[in-house]
Amino acid sequence: MSETNPAAAEVAAPHRYTAVVAGEIEARWQDFWDAEGTYAAPNPSGDLAGDAELAAKPKKFIMDMFPYPSGTGLHVGHPLGYIATDVFARYQRMTGHNVLHTLGFDAFGLPAEQHAVATGEHPRVTTEAAINNMRSQLRRLGLGHDKRRSFATIDPDYYKWTQWIFLQIFNSWYDGEANKARPIAELIAQFESGERAVPGGGSWSALSAAERADVLGDHRLAYASDAPVNWCPGLGTVLANEEVTADGRSERGNFPVFKAKLRQWNMRITAYADRLLDDLNELDWPEAIKLQQRNWIGRSEGARVDFPIDGERITVFTTRPDTLFGATYMVLAPEHPLVDKFTPDAWPEGTHDVWTGGHATPADAVTAYRAQATSKSDVERQAEAKDKTGVFIGSYATNPVNGERIPVFIADYVLMGYGTGAIMAVPAGDQRDFEFARAFELPIRCVVEPTDGRGTDTSIWEDAFGSYDAKVVNSAGEGVSLDGLGVVEAKARITEWLERTGIGEGTVNFRLRDWLFSRQRYWGEPFPIVYDEDGAAHALPESMLPLELPEVEDYSPRTFEPDDADTQPETPLSRNADWVNVTLDLGDGRGPRPYRRETNTMPNWAGSCWYELRYLDPHNSEKLVDPQIEQYWMGPREGQPHGGVDLYVGGAEHAVLHLLYARFWSKVLFDLGHVSSAEPFHRLFNQGMIQAFVYRDSRGFAVPATEVEERDGAYYYQGEKVSRLLGKMGKSLKNAVTPESICEEYGADTLRLYEMAMGPLDVSRPWDTRAVVGQFRLLQRLWRNVVDEASGEVTVVDAEPAEDTLRALHKAIEGVRQDLEGMRFNTAIAKVTELNNHLTKVGGPVSRPVAEALVLLVAPLAPHIAEELWRKLGHGDSVVHQDFPVADPAYVVDEAVTCVVQIKGKVKARLEVSPAISEAELEKVALADEKVVAALAGAAIRKVIVRAPKLVNIVT
């Protein structure tokens, strides 16, 4: 048959496996699977113990990270993780598991809103069109999803429960003694009964409604507050810290981001910091992701210390209270709320010129410096190499351990987002403080004896010295002395003294900040919150959910010049007066009253914080999730003490965004008794990325990769030489390859095999369209081993296979099983290829048991051709739920292995021996071998080194 003449080949082999045949097979079986509900995973109903069939099956809940339905559709890099989870899910079904595997869409997002702003087309229209296109693309890949369970976060039936969860969080507080969230009603009862003191004294009944709301707001897990936020005028919205790049710009749009003080909704995730840290230990996650979360939460132990100032105090947190005697000045973050309070009208007498920044008054200096600091990102402000800047605010605090008056500065290297936003500066022990002290001519006092020989005279020091392995010096005052103590002992002594004198206390601090939960956008979940005439927030009753988005004429928040920091948000919802201003009866006994709706919307993270629960019970309109169903799929069990999804696959870029937020929501729902799982995802797997070559012209612009020619090791586009660099795949880089194009040329099964065979799943790998044909040929050889290409008839025979074929088969079964269990799909494909090649090489009709086992091995990886061949082999039921083959141990172990015999390092003989041979027996056999005896020629043997069963080394 001619490979160079496709037409002739088609005539000679009309039943050959071609791209056209593959497409027909794939379309037919996809329709069949949909019609039959092949991938529908049953939920328990009633008593699981009474459902014998379901109770006998172990369950497996497998998830992909939520995709965002982009209007540009998928390229071949996107489905990598989806194909991997599909292969794994299919294998789990074939090994007897009840598998839940589905896919929904994280559909609220800025791109659809930006398109709506530009075109006036409702974001729902473009989003739903994108979802339909993406569903079509994914269906063509043959993904075995339970489609009954799919949804999008923009569905009102879905975001009704997102709003409901928000209200659970809003109506909860964190009880530190019980170490869990509790309903806010229980806190109110404590205030009413006097069990808990009302802040400021007095009785709960004496407080006005607004005052009670303020007190409760200080405890609620969801609360509104005036706080420093990341304001992005170019987008017209505030951003969470995680949405701001290292250079102080918005992740989307690359606009400048400024610090501003605005009233926003927050989630008190900090209350869960310890539990978020501790429970990581029980999760089966990559250590790199655990480390990122630990660093982001940033737990540190130290002490809180109060520094008196003008009859009040500035509180600092320090991890080194043993260095208190070395504090010679204080620094506040420019945004610190006490700065204005302690900034006098005039400079105090004796103020150093270098401290004033050249300004006539402290207020002028503070205003100018704040404007300078606002334009910098947190990363820029903390850069180690930059010159230290700051300004004296005109006031002095008192060092509580020695009574010394120390000046108070503001400086941009101190952030409100860490600790208390204030530091005690110990320049001898901290490099940033050292550089600041040198720049502003401030004292540097050595309080930890250097161990590097530099001595205690700081005037000759070139840098700071800090150590835990040293003695404390120059640290004696009234009532306490640390001199001569080691650092650990000194920390304990000073902390005890601080607590005894009421000046401070030992405490734990976290880098983690509360989660900023407001966005000034239209396309997001509306808050189920209204405000009364006093500005107090009220929750909508559950009967009013979902609160749906109203129609608006303009979808854009008001945006400003990107560099205009002196602006305020104006949301699209705020312009719809009929929706904003309403009269409602909230069922609280007060009857109908006028209210004002919240006009911010939730961030796009909200919908993905709990979607795993909706997959379990997607059509439940009465409950978030049926408790029995949740317990079955996600409840704690052996090896999973906190419960959660059995396997969660997605990108490592979500380490401290989605994953941390979802864990927080799960813990709140667990505390309130709504779920049995305290963690959402037990096992996490981060897939790598499919990369592609990017070609750029002399201007640096990307050119179409498909039109680039390679000549003599160089690359040319329309005759011009271009550069080539391996990078991301994407439409903007003009190197995207669509799944449809590969499916048209080779079929979906080939695409699936190629993506899985490219390399280990967790490693990035380059795409090469020319290499796809290799997997296509594997499927063609598989087809020929079962089907006659000329007649279309099945060629297998019922004869017993030869022993070498049995050994090849069972080794493949054993290896593929292990590889699929370990998600080593590339090596599983290599083992299938090896078996298939063995059958091709042996030639002749393939034995039916071998052919059937081979089809079952291929089924998780290439399900369409497997389903087709399974039916051709005479089976009436789907291959999807067949039992995966089990290897016979007798055929897995080699009958004999080759042992190399060396004399003085040179190979003299090769012996065929049993793999179970002992070292003593192998030595005996080797020394008796004719070739070995001849090579020794009577030489005395000094030593025999045996490594059974493969090596004997004789030293003469």
Which CATH C-level class of the domain at 299-510 is it? Alpha Beta
Oligomer: single chain
CATH fold title of the domain at 299-510: Isoleucyl-tRNA Synthetase, domain 2
Estimated helix fraction: 25-40%
Low-confidence stretches: none
Q: How would you characterize the largest beta sheet?
A: 6 strands, mixed
State the separation between the terminal residues, measured CA to CA. Answer: 60 Å
What is the CATH architecture assignment of the domain at 299-510? Alpha-Beta Complex
Total number of β-strand segments? Answer: 33
Count every helix, treating DSSP H or I runs of 4 or more residues as helices: 30
How would you explain this protein's 3D organization?
The protein is an alpha+beta fold and 956 residues long. Among the domains are: 164-171 and 220-294 and 515-597, HUPs (Rossmann fold, 3-Layer(aba) Sandwich); 299-510, Isoleucyl-tRNA Synthetase, domain 2, CATH 3.90.740.10; 692-727, no CATH class; 895-955, Roll (Ubiquitin-like (UB roll)), CATH 3.10.20.590. 32% of the residues lie in helices and 18% in strands. It has 30 helices and 33 strands. The strands form 9 sheets. Strands 24, 25, 26, 27, 28 and 29 form a 6-stranded mixed beta sheet that branches. Strands 2-1-22-23 form a 4-stranded parallel beta sheet, sandwiched between helices. A 4-stranded antiparallel beta sheet has the order 6-5-7-17. β26 and β27 form a beta hairpin.
